[in-house]
Amino acid sequence: MAKVVKIALAGEGGQGVQSVANILVEAAYEEGKEALYIPNFGVEQRGGVSVAYVQISDGYIGSPKFKFADIIIALSDRAVRRTQKYIDENTLFVYDSGIEGIEEDLPKQAKRVLGIPAIEVAKNELHPRVFNVIIMGAVIGVTGVVSIEQAKAALEKKLGYKFEQNPQLRELNFKALERGIELVKGQV
Amino acid sequence: MSVQPQMPKSWCIETKPHKFCPGCGHPLVLKALGEVIDELEIADKVVYGCDIGCSLLAWDFFNVDSIQTHHGRTTPVIVGMRRANEDVIGIAYMGDGGGYAIGAQHLVNAAARNEKILVILVNNTQYGMTGGQMAPTTLPGQKTETSPYGRDVEWTGPPVQGPEMVAAISQEGAYVARGTVANIRQLKKFIKKAVENVMQGNGFSFIEALSLCPTNWRTNAEQTWRFVEEDMAKFFKVGELKVPGQGKEE
Amino acid sequence: MAAKPIEGEKKVFVTGNEAVAWAALAAGAEIMYGYPITPQNEIMHYWTRIAPKYGKKFLQTEDEISAGFTCLGGVLAGRKAFTATAGPGNTLMQEPMSMAEMMRIPSVVVICARGGPSTATVIYSQQETTLTCYGGNGEGLRIVYSTANHQELYDYTIKAFNSAWKYRFPTFVLGDGYQSKMRESLVMYDPEARGIEMVESEPYVLKPGVPGSDRKAAHLRNTYNMEDELYEVIMELVKDFEKMAPEVVEYAVHDCEDAEILLLAHGVVSRAALGAVKLLRQEGLKVGLFRPITLRPFPQEELKKYAQKAKHILVVESAHGQLDKLVKENIYGITTPISPYFRPGVGVTVEEVIQEVKKLV
Question: Is the pLDDT of residue C175 over 90?
């Protein structure tokens, strides 16, 4: 059975977790891969931790959720704690290095723990709004599940109408994607 | 550590901050209710029932015995409690769906039988927790998830006038009013009168509270208040519709 | 408005709920009745947006009891009507569907199973198996398809209309909250473009002619006076149900011929089981999967065949014995030991199934 890459993304509502996950699976789908995405959902409309489960494979994908992730992206302190259960010795745990108060919560048993300054880079170099696209770049850089071209195409498809109105946004988003890939280059 | 906001004593501090969305009207109604419970000193006698939908988020809200039931079934559960034990001051709390849609038959029968309970119905013109579908109280032309092109009153009828219906079918001793979170003082006054009415064993008490849902209305603060104070107020008249000893209509 | 909702075929990447809405349209459904309940809401959201473009209708009813009865009404009026619900809504749906069973009314109901009992979770489970197969105060004379992926949600929603209208039993598509909310790819198609003949609907009332003179009036009832009368009626229903069964029964087998350990799973859990079979076979373990696709009628004979051969059966479900019960009642007499892996309300992963199988070895 072909390898299935299991990605869990988690963050606060509004951080774009579901958006990134959706663009990622769409890119994989367009590339002809098997892809499956499912969000977590509960009774509260607002306020919980937003989690997205993504699986990408060249072959069969079994259950929509998984026990342990190959890569976890945690974007807030609650997200760091919430995703503990998906970590085993093969998991690459990525978190935003700007999150405070999580030193104790960082996993001891993961394969690798990687802090990336996505929020900082977004704020200082690009724009706070594209911080989640930087994350998307990081995921691609680490897993190679989709090509950067396909990722850009997926971004274009989703945000194209905004890019039409303001072409600078396109450049900004693509730059964020590339920056995300750079941030993890050589780290894994 | 920031200063804790002042909360009614009947509120359960351990379960705060609550789970309602920012800008939700429920906490406003619940605060008015909490203050009434404090003032009448009845926390040890009240059973608070909540429905399915956003009201269920109040299942552990109060320092008052509470029961979260099924959708539309809060009225009969509280009726059953009070019938079996007259010490219970029964308050059934629900949304527009729980009272006017799936719970309509129970509301009608509770009013017809003059059940000695209080029903508080929070009207925010749509089903909040499930994502903003049309409700019996949705305004004409209002866009919701199941009326994406706007509510067509030719097809679905106009918004339901709940307190008017309850006032028309209720008995001597019933208290029926419609308040709004845009006038908390008045809403609280209505709630207090309604609870006292039930405590005195006069009859069925019913309060509709016009409320907010910026999450599903997709409105900012200004638009939110405008919607409840102007748009909703056009269809839902605020005031007392039935007061014991004061004849049928106001 | 003469255009078809789906022309030819096209590959898409959407949620299960969206797939169901399009499938119903492609099947020629004319009206949907529904009431909000998670996780099926988006079926209504998509339907209310797309259906009007093809002249199809929608009514949000006051509750699920009404959604069920209005659906029956629509069917009696000769239109392809359907509804969708979940959890507590499914509980309420049993009253109208009991009437459908008794009166042979071809309603189509999509169930998106969530946690139970009572309100439980809005998310997922396989705890509505018993309810969907045997709910109501009858013998469970209904057709139930249990889907495992979006292609099947699409295929079987279309098939449900055909099975319902051909055999005249209330027909259910049993999915779950995971399938509803997840996104994966499928091919949407116009059934006629694939040579699928759509069964026409037909009215029970207002047939041409004046009742009493040109034709007999339709006198439809579900009440009987005497026990003997009822017995005859039920035995007729059972006879028709058993006659229909071989034509409708569906199941899937993977590596069962030489399987020593036979996995039993339905719906989305069968994906995890299949994933486990694939990996365990690579390790040389003789594991197979029997997956009932129709839970009603249950593929009894086919399962007996494989159950007999296996050394051990492992029933895997996101419930506490609902599939297990169906299995046991259907293979009564076979002595192969049966072990449970029950995870009520919780998803089952490939890794867990592998773990459970290894415990048996």
Answer: yes
Q: Tell me the C-alpha distance between B129 and B147, whole Å.
A: 17
Describe chain C by its helix, strand, coil percentages, rounded to 5.
45, 20, 35
Mean pLDDT (chain C, rounded): 97
With H, G, I as helix, E, B as strand and everything else as coil, classify residue C198: coil
- From the DSSP assignment, how many helices (H) and strands (E) are in chain B? 10, 9
Burial label for A64, CB within 10 Å (0-12, 13-18, 19+), is: buried
Q: Give me the DSSP letters along C286-320.
A: -EEEEEESEEES--HHHHHHHHHH-SEEEEEESSS
Distance CA C361, CA C353 (A): 13
Structure tokens at B152: 């067509």
Q: What's the pLDDT at C18? A: 98
Supply the pLDDT for residue B247. Answer: 60
How far is the C-alpha of B186 from the C-alpha of B188, rounded, in Å? Answer: 5
Contacts with B149 from chain C: Cβ below 8 Å: 52
Question: In a 3-state reduction of DSSP, which class is residue C196?
Answer: coil
Chain A residue with CA closest to B128: the answer is A45
- The one-letter amino acid code at C321 reads G
Structure confidence at residue C341 as a pLDDT band (50, 70, 90):
very high
Buried-exposed string A24-37: b where 16+ CB fall within 10 A, e elsewhere: bbbbbbbbebbbbb
Is A14 exposed, middle or buried, given 0-12, 13-18 or 19+ CB atoms closer than 10 A?
exposed
Contact (CB, 8 A) for A80 and A48: no
Rounded to whole angstroms, how far apart are CA atoms C301 and C234? 23
ipTM: 0.92
**Would the pTM count as exceeding 0.90?**
yes
Cβ <8 Å between C88 and B130? no
pLDDT at residue A41 in the model: 87
**pLDDT, tens only, C92-107:** 999 999 999 999 999 9
Query: Cα separations (Å) of B225 from A45, B162, B210, C22?
Result: 20, 22, 11, 38
Contact B101 C63 (CB under 8 A): yes
Answer whether A47 sits within 8 Å of B215, measured CB to CB. Answer: no
Cα diameter, chain B: 55
pLDDT digits (tens, 9 = 90+) for A50-107: 999 999 999 999 999 999 999 999 999 999 999 999 999 999 999 999 999 988 899 9
Give tens-digit pLDDT for B76-106: 999 999 999 999 999 999 999 999 999 999 9
Partner B contacted by A100 (CB < 8 A): no
- For residue C171, CA distances in Å to A23, B129, B235, C139 come to 36, 29, 42, 14
pLDDT of residue C183: 98
Residue B68 pLDDT: 95
Task: Enumerate residues 6+ apart whose C-beta is below 8 A from C268.
Answer: A63, A64, C126, C148, C149, C175, C176, C178, C179, C347
- The CA-atom distances, in angstroms, between C343 and each of A23, A84, A89, C128, C347 are 32, 21, 25, 13, 7
For the cut 70, the answer to whether the pLDDT of residue B250 exceeds it is no
Q: What is d(CA B98, CA B93) in angstroms, rounded to the nearest whole number?
A: 9
Q: With contact defined as beta carbons under 8 Å apart, do C167 and C244 qualify?
A: yes
The answer to whether B186 and B238 are in contact (CB under 8 A) is yes
pLDDT at B2: 77
Q: Number of residue pairs across A and C with CB atoms under 8 Å? A: 76
